[in-house]
Design a protein that fits this description.
single chain; alpha+beta; three-stranded mixed beta sheet; two-stranded antiparallel sheet; 6 helices; globular; disordered C terminus; binds iron/sulfur cluster
Length: 161
């Protein structure tokens, strides 16, 4: 008898808050959209997305180049958890964690659905080619780089997320 952890579609059978660390990492689709800086209005708390990403993001691989000790390099880099995945306003609607936290299915382009680690990129859902690094701007000008919420997601309306 195969154990539940060997279930190919483990994210549909194991409760979201009971995924092991390997399964948890696989829920990330690798879009790197959470690595884009956001600005928050001090009066209204409204959050604005920018197309400026963290200097430690490898924009081609969509991977953090200091992932293991990112909190040393960027102390305010927020870790996504089962508890906050639903509530963090800056997570894109297409984020695998946000979808599962809200009881929604993963989109058909997600690597867990396709078995292809490049499928997020092929679906044009990553930040690649759409951003600039914070290292290349004056961070005081961040306001000049605010973009629409749908900037990275040409498909997000389609999946109804
Ligand atoms: S937004 Fe979500 S799916 Fe995309 S890279 Fe960040 S954690 Fe992964």
């Amino acid at each position: 008898m195969s154990s539940i952890t060997n279930n190919e579609r483990f994210w549909e059978t194991i409760p979201f808050d009971q995924l092991n660390s390997k399964q948890w990492e696989q829920i990330c689709d690798g879009c790197a959209q959470c690595c884009a800086h956001k600005l928050q209005d001090e009066e209204t708390d409204e959050v604005f997305l920018t197309n400026v990403v963290c200097q430690y993001l490898d924009q081609n691989k969509c991977q953090c180049s200091v992932y293991g000790d990112r909190h040393v390099h960027v102390p305010d880099c927020i870790k996504i958890t089962p508890e906050n995945a639903k509530a963090l306003p800056w997570i894109p609607d297409t984020c695998g964690y946000k979808l599962l936290a809200n009881g929604q299915p993963l989109p058909d382009w997600h690597p867990l659905m396709t078995g292809d680690s490049e499928s997020t990129k092929n679906a044009d859902m990553t930040i690649t080619g759409k951003v600039i690094s914070e290292a290349d701007i004056d961070i005081d000008d961040l306001e000049d780089f605010i973009v629409e919420d749908s900037y990275f997601n040409r498909l997000c309306r389609k999946i109804g997320a």
